[in-house]
Design a protein that fits this description.
By secondary structure, this protein is of the alpha/beta class. The chain folds into two domains: about 140 residues, Rossmann fold, CATH 3.40.50.2300; about 160 residues, Rossmann fold, CATH 3.40.50. Helices cover about 35% and strands about 15% of the residues. The chain contains twelve helices and twelve strands. It has a six-stranded parallel beta sheet with strand order 2-1-3-4-5-6. The protein has a six-stranded parallel beta sheet with strand order 9-8-7-10-11-12, with helices on both faces. Helix 4 links the parallel strand 3 and strand 4. The chain is globular and about 60 Å long. The relative contact order is 0.12.
Length: about 325
């Protein structure tokens, strides 16, 4: 396997549960020098909301932000310009970047579907190499399919007696809350650990007003403090089964799916595309229907079948970097 020793990477990625720092560290572990910037000029609630609706409303602020970055780095020689799930970069700025660093390979990785990030479609002609976590997008837009990854925190731990029958940890979006409540009730699960997260109280009340799927969500069931990866990993270690609920508008595998794989725990998922992956094993993974989710007794009783080291590496963050930077 080749390394990135001697290579310099200008890396843009929105701040997202510290994954941007984990990616930076993984690139550095391969020998690269990495300069990271948040893709967004600001992470306050207003800026993030406006950028997601239409980034052109903050066009001048975004332009100033990127011009400052380019002025600061204009004398650098970069081997790669690496963008992960960009939200605010424009064709204008990316074209300027291309002119400043003509020898740098431009790589794009999307961990959202273009159904949720339509603004990014105009950027595609400006990249040399493009990857997505979503199989449908890979076919529709001729991108390479590469699932997400798990970080080292989610490596397999020593076996211990499970404290919980079922664990769900995730952002309270779409139909997740109602699905989880319905699932636990219909399968008569009591010994469960549930953690619904939102990043602001304001967002909670806006969703209550404007999102019909959020009407039944109780304030006391939602936390506004995000968990660390160590805390989530500890919860997963104490759980027999992990529940994953994909966004209805995308079929890419979630981080939770790959983290469950890394920890070699049983997975329940609503994502039908799981059947198409090389690690799918009915002893370890149960696909459940959104409309009538059923946890079978057979799945609960059958032992977990350990994964081989090659598969574990492939879906680790090191395997992810290796594939995207063509080191293998």
């Amino acid at each position: 396997m080749r390394s990135l020793s001697g290579k310099t990477i200008l890396f843009f990625c929105p701040t997202f549960f510290n994954y941007e720092q984990e990616i930076k560290k993984a690139l550095e572990d391969f020998g690269a020098t990495v300069i990271w910037y948040d893709d967004r000029p600001s992470n306050n609630f207003y800026s993030k909301a406006v950028i997601r609706v239409n980034k052109n409303f903050l066009k001048n602020k975004i332009r100033r932000y990127y011009n400052e970055i380019l002025d600061k780095n204009k004398d650098q020689k970069f081997d790669y310009l690496f963008f992960v799930n960009p939200e605010s970069i424009s064709v204008e700025i990316l074209t300027k970047m291309q002119g400043l660093f003509p020898d740098a390979k431009r790589i794009l990785y999307m961990w959202d579907s273009f159904k949720n990030r339509k603004q990014n479609l105009e950027l595609l002609p400006l990249f040399n190499s493009m990857y997505t976590f979503d199989r449908e997008d890979s076919i529709s837009y001729n991108l390479k399919l590469r699932p997400l990854f798990y970080i080292n925190t989610y490596g397999k731990k020593e076996d211990s007696s499970p404290k919980y029958e079922l664990l769900f940890v995730g952002t309270a979006h779409s139909d997740r809350y109602t699905f989880v409540k319905k699932f636990c009730e219909s399968n008569k699960l009591n010994n469960v650990k549930l953690y619904f997260y939102l990043n602001s109280v304001l967002l909670f009340f806006l969703k209550k007003l404007f999102d019909s799927s959020f009407k039944k969500v109780r304030y006391e069931d939602v936390s506004f403090t995000s968990l660390s990866h160590s805390e989530i990993s500890s919860m997963m270690q104490q759980s027999k089964i992990v529940l994953d609920i994909n966004h209805p508008k995308q079929i890419g595998l979630t981080m939770r799916t790959l983290e469950t794989l890394g920890m070699q725990k049983k997975l329940l998922t609503t994502n039908k595309d799981i059947l198409n992956y090389d690690f799918y094993n009915p002893a370890n993974i149960l696909l459940v229907e959104r409309e009538s989710p059923l946890l079978t007794e057979e799945f609960q009783k059958i032992p977990f079948e350990p994964l081989d080291l090659g598969t574990l590496f492939k879906y680790s963050i090191s395997g992810w970097v290796s594939e995207i930077f063509e080191l293998i």
